[in-house]
Amino acid sequence: MPTSGDHTGATRPHVVLLPSAGMGHLVPFGRLAVALSGAHGCDVSVAAVLPTVSSAESNHLDALFAAASPGVRRLDFPLAPFDESQFPNADPFFLRFEAMRRSAPLLGPLLAGAGASALVTDIVLASVVLPVAREHGVPCYVLFTSSAAMLSLCAHFPAHVDANAAAGRAGVGDVDLPGVYRVPKSSVPQALHDPKHLFTQQFVANGRGLVHADGVLVNTFDAFEPEAITALREGKVEPNFPPVFAVGPLLLVKFPPAKEPAGYMRWLDAQPARSVVYVSFGSRKAISPEQLRELAAGLEASGHRFLWVVKTTVVDRDDAAELGDLLGDGFLERVEERALVTKGWVEQEEILQHGSVGLFISHCGWNSVTEATAFGVPVLAWPRFGDQRVNAAVVARGGLGAWEERWSWDGEEGLVSGEEVAGKIKAVMADETVMKKTAGVRDAAAAATANGGTSYRSLAEFVGRCRDAGGRHG
């Protein structure tokens, strides 16, 4: 396979990246952009849609282009007019996916003007972007922004739907992923149980389209998900599947440090080693007021220090609730000696690198999982929606932490009690075996991304293919 040294004196391929909406999609594209433009010698452009859905996305893009300039450039991707009223009450991020999908024909002139050697598109856009790239003679790859297990589900789900239809079976049951393992019905993303759901229609179309990609990049590494990666590469999950490049965990973008450390970082500096429970459920989903109260009670009863990032709305611009009202009378006052609770945006990778953090209570969004692998922080998985139960199973199988499968997620009845939360925190924080296994995952992640490691070589092979395509940037 090629290595980073192979680009000396050769044409620099121009790789255009097309992320979709949401930090879960945007962040890995930014990390891929920096990896390609740095050690792997590519010119990179990121096609951005403005305005973004959330403030977090806008801020991240600005920081990315400032930090990675001139190696990473911005391309403006204008959207065609789109009447959102035909999808009442739809998730704003799913609406953006649909608006971008309907604007795919506008990519042709963008690619021609950029002189692209290759296009890397987001999985949620795959089925509509691949034909446009092919029409313009541009090799097109897909960056899958979740786990290899979830990629297996995406690739196989259309066949599962077809088999159910042929057998006259209604609904989605357990899904047996050939060569991988069974995904129980309870772990299948909630939207996929409704065949008319906008996301289901997108998901099935993209799953069918994957076989037409020139390759699929996935932000994981061979040692963490060996069954899924092997099954995909051997064509067991889906025959004639394109090459799979496991390139993770994609390394963090080094943004210029702030003039003053953030308040939460100063607070972490004052805490003992591995004493803090970090709690965050990501940028995409809110937790119900009732469950927030129980989580607060559990954190308080655990007796451990904690840093908690509270989210109450789907889109950050809409969040105006007061913490004191959300978490109950007197809670903030009672825990102020050993806790920091915030609704502000935090740089999660800074937190997870900090030596005072001993446990991460996470929704298991894939960016969060890959960051925990990179820094060796044990995860207590509490998935909320979408791909997160599939990812939580990867966490448990891969030795990165624990998953209490009985705990409910969005749409299920019942609350997880504060007593249950406290008990689980105490158990995992006291378990030395968890700490040792997680350290092993961290070491395997470091070996994969080091020069000559499996993920480094996968990314180098992808770059070699882009270079061989012979495209020249404009």
Structural description of this entry:
- The chain is α/β, with parallel strands linked by helices and 474 residues long.
- The protein folds into 2 domains: 261 residues, Glycogen Phosphorylase B (Rossmann fold, 3-Layer(aba) Sandwich); 184 residues, Rossmann fold (3-Layer(aba) Sandwich).
- The chain has a 7-stranded parallel β-sheet, with helices on both faces.
- Strand 2, helix 2 and strand 3 form a beta-alpha-beta unit.
- Helix 1 runs parallel beside helix 2, helix 5 packs across helix 7 and helix 6 packs across helix 7.
- The two termini are 27 Å apart.
Topology, element by element:
Layout: E1 14-18, H1 23-37, E2 43-48, H2 55-68, E3 72-76, H3 92-102, H4 107-114, E4 118-122, H5 126-135, E5 140-144, H6 148-167, E6 175-176, E7 182-183, H7 198-209, E8 215-218, H8 226-233, E9 244-246, H9 263-269, E10 276-280, H10 289-302, E11 305-309, H11 323-327, H12 331-335, E12 339-342, H13 348-353, E13 357-362, H14 366-375, E14 379-381, H15 388-398, E15 401-403, H16 418-429, H17 432-449, H18 454-468
Organism: Digitaria exilis
Family: Belongs to the UDP-glycosyltransferase family.
GO molecular function, one term: UDP-glucosyltransferase activity
Q: Which short descriptors sum up this protein?
A:
single chain; 474 residues; alpha/beta; Rossmann fold; six-stranded parallel beta sheet; disordered N terminus; UDP-glycosyltransf_plant; transferase; Glycosyltransferase; UDP-glucosyltransferase activity; glycosyltransferase
